[in-house]
UniProtKB/TrEMBL annotation:
This is Gamma-glutamylcyclotransferase. It comes from the Eukaryota. Residues 33-44 have a biased composition (Pro residues). Coiled coil: none annotated. Residues 10-24 have a biased composition (Basic and acidic residues). Gene3D superfamilies: Gamma-glutamyl cyclotransferase-like. Residues 1-45 are annotated as: Disordered.
Length: 362
């Protein structure tokens, strides 16, 4: 007789039960292969052009729209290496060609190369006359192509006050072409051309020479008609007082401190120009008074550094300045502000300092 199956051995499913995995099998099993990471999307080409109508309002559009460009354009820009969208190329044909003028505006380019601006011409306009760029289909202008950080765009716009930002094409002396930023003047300046000063032209010539701009173009600038310099014998001066007072800088410093503490009035402000002590006699609401009421008291070196002249160079101290250069600075002040000052005397820089005061013994 066949014995019946127990409840433990009876199965309703004929499928064999899977055997449990051993620990060795679990450790030797390979995980499923991971899918290779997808490559990053290609970076868009960068076109360094700008929009007319001002930079401050279009920087956001500029950085978005400049993300397109053809393969040929990328080849033309390949000579500069890797570049970021925050950089922009700017063409200069005026005083900004000069490194000293560029530094005075706190503009420090990442790169600078000589180039010519296609389809433009250079005119001198304004009072005093300055270089102006205008579109011209059959002309070109030599100058310097600068690479600036995009953070300097608002400052460039402020320096070129009155100019309209536009895109243009500059050609390097190697033949490559680069789209760049240019500040163009209004068409109305065609009827307002004027002669530049010899000082202004000397700044352009020096700047073009610094960057090895085309030699024939430099000669053209040198030979351009200009308003001649004033001879040193014709420099304006502040007439000395009938009884001049000899003063020391220590006394002037103490006087300025008293003025800033409001111990003396604005009419007692004193400054020094070319060793002459000048007292303010102008109105209380004159804009120049703000310059008079701050240090340095001696404005000679400050003026020489702020208004660069290639004839005299950029001095680092008063001792670096020649007597003619100091008289040149006085001429600039006396020609414009003669009626605002009265000359009291002069500063004696050679006098020894006063001995220290002895403290009274108790």
């Amino acid at each position: 007789m066949q014995r019946p199956q127990s409840a433990h051995t009876a199965r309703t499913d004929a499928t064999p039960r899977p055997r449990p995995e051993s620990a060795r099998a679990r450790t030797s099993a390979k995980p499923p292969a991971a899918e290779p990471p997808s490559p990053p999307p290609p970076k868009p080409a960068i076109r360094y052009d700008v929009y007319a109508g001002g930079l401050s309002a279009s920087i956001a559009r500029h950085r978005v729209a400049l993300m397109s460009g053809s393969l040929e354009e990328r080849r033309q820009l390949s000579w500069v290496g890797t570049r970021q969208p925050s950089d922009v190329w700017c063409f200069a044909a005026g005083s900004l060609m000069n490194r000293h003028i560029l530094a005075s505006h706190d503009l420090h380019p990442k790169a600078a190369v000589p180039a010519s601006l296609l389809s433009h011409q250079l005119l001198f306009s304004g009072a005093p006359a300055a270089a102006c760029l205008l579109p011209s289909a059959e002309a070109c202008v030599h100058g310097v192509l600068y690479k600036f950080s995009g953070a300097l765009l608002p400052k460039l716009e402020a320096v070129h006050a009155g100019g309209q930002a536009a895109r243009a094409c500059a050609q390097l002396y190697t033949g490559a072409q680069v789209e760049c930023l240019v500040f163009r003047s209004d068409e109305a300046v065609r009827a307002e051309t004027a002669l530049p000063t010899a000082l202004y032209l000397s700044i352009l010539v020096e700047g073009a020479t610094q960057h090895h701009v085309d030699a024939s173009y430099v000669e053209t600038l040198k030979s351009h008609e200009a308003i001649p310099r004033k001879p040193a014998s014709a420099f304006a001066t502040f007439p000395m007082a009938a009884t001049p007072v000899k003063m020391r800088m220590e006394a002037l410093e103490a006087h300025l401190d008293a003025h800033l503490r409001a111990d003396v009035g604005f009419e007692d402000c004193l400054i020094v120009v070319n060793k002459k002590v000048l007292k303010w006699v102008g109105p209380a609401d004159h804009p120049l008074l703000a310059t008079v009421r701050r240090r340095p008291i001696d404005k000679t070196l400050e003026e020489a550094q702020q208004k660069y002249d290639p004839l005299y160079g950029r001095p680092s101290s008063l001792r670096d300045m020649s007597d003619e250069h100091k008289a040149y600075v006085e001429d600039a002040w006396a020609s414009s502000f003669l009626a605002l000052f009265e000359c009291l005397g002069f500063v004696d820089y050679e006098a020894p300092p006063p001995p220290p005061k002895e403290e009274d013994e108790e």
